[in-house]
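Please predict the structure of the following assembly.
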Amino acid sequence: ETGVTQTPRHLVMGMTNKKSLKCEQHLGHNAMYWYKQSAKKPLELMFVYSLEERVENNSVPSRFSPECPNSSHLFLHLHTLQPEDSALYLCASSQDFAGLAGANVLTFGAGSRLTVL
Amino acid sequence: GENVEQHPSTLSVQEGDSAVIKCTYSDSASNYFPWYKQELGKGPQLIIDIRSNVGEKKDQRIAVTLNKTAKHFSLHITETQPEDSAVYFCAARNTGNQFYFGTGTSLTVIP
C-alpha cells in the first residue's frame, strides 16, 4: 500500500453510537491532519499532529477525539454526534508541519463519508 | 486569520478551450499557494503550487500566476480534456503553517 489510506470509506451511525475513523500513511511523513469537508464550504482543519504530538486543535467539539499512537496512524473517535456532523472526513499527511513550503505539502486520503442519523 | 475566496463555483468549457479559476486571499504574509484537484470519490490531489517569491509557474497544460500586490492567484488550464473534469481547490498557507482553502470550483469539460 502506498499513500494515505482511510477506513472505513463510508459510515452510517446513530447519534448515540461510538465509532472510529482510521488513517494510515505509508510515506514516512512526520505530520498528520484531520480535515472536515462539507458541501459548499472550505475544508476545515480539525486537528494536526506533528511527531505524534498534537499541535493544532481548531475549537473542535469534544465529541470528536483524535488519537495518534505513532507517526503512521491517526484515529478520529466519534461519540454522540449530531446530524450536522455528517460530512466527508479527510486525513492528510505531510513531511513536516513547519518549515519550507515543500516540507508541508499535503497528501490526502480518499476520505471517510460519515452520515449521522 | 486568512480568508480565501474562490471563483467561479462552477465552470463549463468545451473540450480544447481554456479554463481559468481565480482566488483571492487576505493575509499579505501568506507565502505558499497550492492547487488541488478532487475527482469523484477521491481525496484532493496536489496539481501545482507556487511560492510567494515567484510570479508564475507552468507544468505542461497547467499554469498558476500570483499577484502579491493584489493578493490574488489563478489557475489556468489550457487545451482542456474531459479528464480535467473535477473540483479544484485553491489554498493559501499563512506564517503559522496553516492552510486556508477556497470553497472549490466544479469544472466540467464538455466533449
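DSSP finds no helices and eleven strands in chain A. The first strand of chain A starts at residue 4 and ends at 7.
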